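Let us work through a complete example step by step.
Step 1: write down the sequence.
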Amino acid sequence: MIQLFKMAFRDLGRNRRRSFFSALALGIGLAMLLLMAAFIEGEMGTAVDTAIRLQSGHLQVRAKSYDEVKTSLKWADLVENPGAVAAQIAALQQVKAATPRLFASGIVSVGDESAGVRIYGIDPLSEANAPYRDGMISGEFLAPDDREGILIGKPLVDKLALKAGDQVSLSVNTSNGDVAEQLFTIRGIYSTQTGSFDTVTVFLPLAKAQAIAKAEDHASTIFVLLNDTTQTDAVASAIQATNYEVLPWSKMNELILQWEEMANSYMVFFYLIVLGITATVIINTLVMAVYERTREIGIFAAIGMKSRRIMAMFLAESSLLAVGGIIMGLILGGLVIAYFSRYGFYIGDFGITGVLFSDTIRAKLTLEDTITLSILALVVTLLASLYPAVLASRMEPVEALRGGE
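Step 2: predict the structure and record it as tokens.
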């Protein structure tokens, strides 16, 4: 076996340039696949993490009749005495933060410009607000007793040509079906680097949101963050809420999970197409080698080398080309992925309803994807090399010797 690979290495060295570029073609193809896999993993993983941090939490406790689509504000659809409910949940060891939130729909207007928004009534002191607090661009974060302050996202501020300290009119749908309107001062401008969220979301202190929406001591949900995502099911079972339903993050983010599953399914076909194209380069290299060495193959056959030995010799050559190409691909792909994992790739707002994609994709390559794609590249290359290997093994000695003259 060692002798076979020594012969294969020597044969590839006869035309080093051709062998190098054949392996390089496979390497570039593998590098492309690694980059695509890293982008898919990075974006889907980020989308789930972003949705949990900004919108769904690991768990939410709601009234069973609550309609999220309609942003229901009927008292019967809300959580009564949410502070006490949140405190009971926060006492669980696995819980990082539990806080009431009130959702309402409204319109922000200034002059002749207006925009529809979703209002988040939050407890400003809660640890769950870290993404918004850490994303402050200008101004200051809300205070619990603020009755005239509002927090607005940067895309909305840019759209309406506003800045911190400006006043805006906020119209809010109330629990009794009326519309309440009040002037608010922009206390601060935030950015979570998620355009689809920042464009439509404004924040008020929970007490003020309850007052203007006429919800009194009620909240739409209890937003729960855990220390470990894997504890979601255990905590959901531990929460005693007979009058409410407990929703895990996977249930609230089904669209993202379906999107990820669909993306992975399509990527398999893309992988095979790219590897198929690069494998043809290996086929062409070996077919040319077969015809260039026709007389040599005839001599081997004439002195008694069996056809399976000749076939194995060409398969050994393809194996060396494949290994060389995979090493090149891992190096090239690793360098490119390292760059994009640090600096990312800006895509802006996808504009897909129900999915919070970050404005910047950061590549994230997993060991599983690396191993899977490397093995796939090796297997496809070996399968592709079967044709030239069989072609060489089936040559008749006399005809091969004549063909070499």
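Step 3: interpret the result. The radius of gyration is 31 Å.
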